[in-house]
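Morning!

As promised:
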Amino acid sequence: MADLPALRPGEIPLPGGLGPAADAGLHFIGRIRTPWARGDCPRNIAAARAQMSGARIELDPRLAPALTGLRSGQPVLLLYWMHHARRDLLLQAPKHVDAPRGTFALRSPNRPNPIAASSVLLTAVDVTAATLEIDAIDCFDGTPLLDIKPWIETVDMPPDRA
Amino acid sequence: MADLPALRPGEIPLPGGLGPAADAGLHFIGRIRTPWARGDCPRNIAAARAQMSGARIELDPRLAPALTGLRSGQPVLLLYWMHHARRDLLLQAPKHVDAPRGTFALRSPNRPNPIAASSVLLTAVDVTAATLEIDAIDCFDGTPLLDIKPWIETVDMPPDRA
């Protein structure tokens, strides 16, 4: 726990969190390679896109066949694991909000299950090498990947926007 | 494994899957209550919406304060756990595709980390009761919930659509 973020004024944890996280287990299926480390990571994905830096997904080679059918130019939803997050926060006070807000009303990486979700564009697909290139993303280099899904308007846009 | 889906012609598993799933652990933070059980679940979320049936989220009451700031009418991204899925499939042959396709090119529940993602609309928020009502969703009654995030256009729409 030593490198987890410290509590800010107004932030409320659940003492002890939810306990051992043992309801289900995750596989890290690859890593996201980005130009970013702690201290120079863009504030959000829009800022990462503005830098036009690109990023690469290095999938576990055993899973290479599971990329079959993905193509450059296709939008995908990525799920990845924020391994430096706190999992016990109920109310959080990030710098950009006026008053502490509930964890589920924020996109903060600090949440009971620190799974991040971003919708990105594939710019290259190499099934043999088990790699994908994407337009941009705002996570640290080496972030563990959990899933890749085709982005589908009827599922990934809420009904008032679709 | 007894109740997992059987392999269809053309489907290819990774023998033994990725092994014990222990890179990280999940908390089930609540349950999604829907009208659907195996056999009568809509094919997709659009079909569920057409039935205008609604659905309810019952959050772990210890996490109730983490709903603070969510409001009715707001779009949210839900992540939930498809606990009846196979985790070893590389190529899959669902009925709606012509030829077997890679797992990461499909929204099938069968994937190394069976996390589903759907964007829905909040229709009621009760922080005290730790419940949310949503417009619709296409999962079985009792599906374990993993996360609730505010839906944000710049994160949840790919750059060619935003």
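The longest strand of chain B covers residues 115-126.

Hope this helps with the figure draft.
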